[in-house]
């Protein structure tokens, strides 16, 4: 009969976790959030490294907006990020999150991640 030592069990546990996360993340999105891969998938044409901060802020708005609705309204997040944040849903999200006083700052961020400055 085969016995498993602690090392083997640990390895199996790690493998299960990795597999679980992989299947969870691959429903809609090819890339992990807040990464260069996601930036490119959203068709952002700006420089990722130079605009990481701006991207993080915009990306976070879409997470928070989705949180207002919760599961299963995942399309809210997708719509908010569509065309690298150049869409009506994003503007509505800013309003719904009561962040309109920062609207110009966000518009500048959108210009930067879309290489318009
Ligand atoms: C990115 O651009 C492609 C080609 O124009 C388009 O099909 C796709 O929907 C766009 N994706 C996003 C998230 O804007």
Attribute tags:
0% strand; 117 residues; mainly alpha; 6 helices
Summarize the structure.
The chain has 117 residues and is mainly α. It has six helices and no strands. The longest helix has 20 residues.
The major beta sheet can be summarized as: none
Task: List cofactors, ions and other ligands.
Answer: 2-acetamido-2-deoxy-beta-D-glucopyranose
Helical coverage, percent range: 55-70%
Q: How many domain modules? A: 1
Tell me the strand percentage band: under 5%
Reading the helices and strands in chain order gives HHHHHH
Alpha-beta classification: mainly alpha
**In whole angstroms, how far apart are the ends?**
68 Å
CATH class: Mainly Alpha
Q: Mean pLDDT score, rounded?
A: 88
Shape: elongated
- How large is the radius of gyration? 19 Å
Pfam families: Crust_neurohorm (PF01147)
Signal peptide: 1-27
Disulfide bonds: 44-84, 62-80, 65-93
Keywords: Disulfide bond, Signal
Tell me what you see in this structure:
The chain has about 120 residues and is mainly α. The protein has one domain (about 30-115): Crustacean CHH/MIH/GIH neurohormone (Orthogonal Bundle), CATH 1.10.2010. The chain has six helices and no strands. The protein is elongated and about 65 Å long. Bound molecules: 2-acetamido-2-deoxy-beta-D-glucopyranose. The site of 2-acetamido-2-deoxy-beta-D-glucopyranose has 4 residues, from helix 4.
